[in-house]
Amino acid sequence: MALRLGKRKKPRREDKQLKFALKITDKVLDDQTLKTLAELLNAKRFKSLDYAVSQGKEAVVFRATRHDGSFVAIKVFKFETTAFRNIVPYIDGDPRFDIEHARHNKRALVKIWARKEFSNLRSAFEHGVAVPQPLALKENIIVMQFVGEGGRPFALLSEVVVQNPPAVFEKILISVKKLYAAGIVHADLSPFNIMVAQRETGGGLEEEPVLIDLAQGVSIRHPKAQEFLERDMRQLIKFFSKLGVEKDEGEVLGFVKSGRERV
Is the dihedral angle over the CA atoms 246, 253, 173, 240 positive or is it negative? Predict the structure, then answer.
């Protein structure tokens, strides 16, 4: 007796692999997000979604493999678990984004949040800031450069043993200065939002910090930009003071703002 086949439409190959990849994260992403991921897959932005490298309440970041075998990062902002109170203060008041039509629409707000990070990354990258290069944006998903080596992401500043704290601190300040010159304040800079590439070279260990998570980054014309910048610097100074690097907040702020003549 022949087996009876169901009439349910067979899922596309890309849908099956995406559902499997999302399942292993123990996080539920809605059907619209799955559809957007499939569209990016069909557009050959990546070949396979590998695994989650970072998870949070607002977003999950996957490593993905491209057709040439290289890797990219896929950042998916979640519609259901992103909290209004966490993101509105960083959008409201930023002259680059209008949220009036989205103030009470979470899905629309999350899409603006994704667009905001993509815009910040693009401006930062164009101004020579050490950030992941943004490659594509669609709805609530960003495709960006994978920050790692051999398919493994670099560790966060909070997780590594820094070999040369003064040099790493100086490199971070240079990036923040360039970011400010681009008209942006990170607004959530901490050891948890900085990755450190550590590579062995002929001259010893090379340490290169990379700024990540720029969704909350605001224009320097934002009414709280100065407050956010000062908070960023205090957090950095506090962290590096534990590593023996003593810096004056006023001098640090002056250095960062010296790259731009007018606010």
Answer: positive
- CATH number for the domain spanning 135: value is 3.30.200.20
What pLDDT does 86 receive? 81
Do the domain assignments include residue 7? Answer: no
Query: Which residue in the block uniquely carries the two structure tokens 């680059």?
Result: 96
Instruction: Give domain status of residue 10, yes or no.
Output: no
- For position 252, which CATH number holds? 1.10.510.10
Together in a domain, 23 and 63: yes
Query: Are both 77 and 160 inside the same structural domain?
Result: no
- What per-residue confidence (pLDDT) applies to 1? 33
Q: Which positions of the chain have pLDDT values less than 50?
A: 1-16, 24-26, 262-263
Q: Is 149 in contact with 195 (CB distance < 8 Å)?
A: no
For residue 260, the model assigns a pLDDT of: 72
Q: Which of these, 44, 4, 38, lies nearest to 21 by C-alpha position?
A: 38
Which of 118, 149, 180 delimits the end of a domain?
A: 149
Predicted local distance difference test score (pLDDT) of residue 21: 54
> What is the reported pLDDT for 2?
36
Looking at the structure, tell me whether residues 156 and 123 fall in a common domain: no
- Max intra-chain CA distance, the chain: 83
Instruction: Report, as residue numbers or ranges, the catalytic residues.
Output: 188, 213
Q: How many domains does the chain have?
A: 2
